[in-house]
Design a protein that fits this description.
- This protein is an alpha+beta fold and 268 residues long.
- It is built from 8 helices and 15 strands.
- It has a single domain, classed as 4-Layer Sandwich (Double-stranded beta-helix).
- 27% of the residues lie in helices and 25% in strands.
- The strands form 4 sheets. It has a 7-stranded mixed sheet with strand order 1-2-3-13-5-15-4, covered by helices on one side. It has a 3-stranded antiparallel sheet with strand order 12-6-14.
- It is globular and about 55 Å long.
- This is TauD/TfdA family dioxygenase.
């Protein structure tokens, strides 16, 4: 029998009693929980890549960035040549903010876990927006934010070389509403490490507002911290859930296998 239990007051749900991940009832329950709770945890199944892909495809089309549907998340360059880039994931972020259509959801399965650290924190920008004082919510209406790859990389490399900056700026930027109103009427904040500046504001005022909103959104009451166990599957709504990895030893064997579900709705 499938049962669900909240992971925190504001977000997250654990699903138990799952025997067949591909069963229509299980898939439907997972999609519903993901929509309304933002983060979904299933423990103890220890999926291989084939099973992870099969389940991912029941949730939606699977993206293949770089031609690979499975992306190995590891700080070991022998496992992942992009290990240096992954250091940016220690900062709060939303994936795909520089794309026109963001990924709908991300799935991680824990293949190896760190002995110390290496958890993942999640924060709901749905809950953060819903709990804003009315005066603050009105203040953000109509504001536009520009997201860039450079903004996120400067958090990891505060004194970049000219070559690094030139490479970052080759990647596209994207402008969206600071408050995203979805087709279904739900609202969330589009913030995180890639948020470069607010259109029409001075650099200082822009940075102050972005930082203020990030601090608001990542209060303990809007967050959930996941401590990984071998075989865990965690799926989250990429469009309205900030996330970040917690520090761990780069020599750790911590390895996650990631699949990404294609989105259907463009940033507003």
């Amino acid at each position: 029998m499938i049962e669900t239990k909240a992971l925190s007051p504001a977000l997250g749900v654990q699903v138990t009693g799952v025997e067949d991940l591909l069963d229509d009832a299980v898939v439907g329950r997972c999609l519903e929980a993901l929509k309304w709770r933002g983060v979904l945890l299933i423990r103890g199944l220890e999926l291989d890549d084939e099973a992870q892909l099969a389940f991912s495809r029941r949730l939606g089309p699977v993206l293949a960035p770089g031609g690979k549907e499975i992306f190995k998340v590891s700080l070991n360059p022998n496992v992942n040549p992009a290990a240096e880039y992954l250091k940016g994931t220690f900062h709060w972020h939303i994936d795909d903010t520089t794309n026109v259509v963001p990924a709908k959801a991300t799935m991680l399965s824990a293949r190896r876990v760190a002995m110390v650290g290496g958890g993942t924190e999640f924060a709901s920008t749905y809950a953060a927006y819903e709990n804003l004082p009315d005066t603050e919510a009105e203040r953000y209406e109509g504001l536009r934010v520009v997201h860039t790859f450079e903004a996120s990389q400067r958090k990891t490399h505060p004194d970049p070389t000219d070559e690094q900056v030139a490479a970052w700026r080759k990647l596209p930027s994207h402008e969206s509403s600071l408050v995203w109103t979805r087709d279904d009427g739900r609202r969330s904040l589009v913030i995180g490490a890639t948020a470069d500046h607010i259109v029409g504001m001075t650099p200082d005022d822009s940075r102050a507002l972005i930082d203020e909103l990030l601090n608001w959104s990542t209060q303990e009451r809007f967050t959930y911290t996941h401590e990984w166990q071998l075989g865990d599957i965690v799926i989250w709504d990429n469009t309205g859930i900030l996330h970040r990895a917690l520090p761990y030893d780069p020599s750790s064997e911590r390895t996650m296998h990631r699949t990404t579900i294609a989105g259907e709705e463009a940033w507003a």
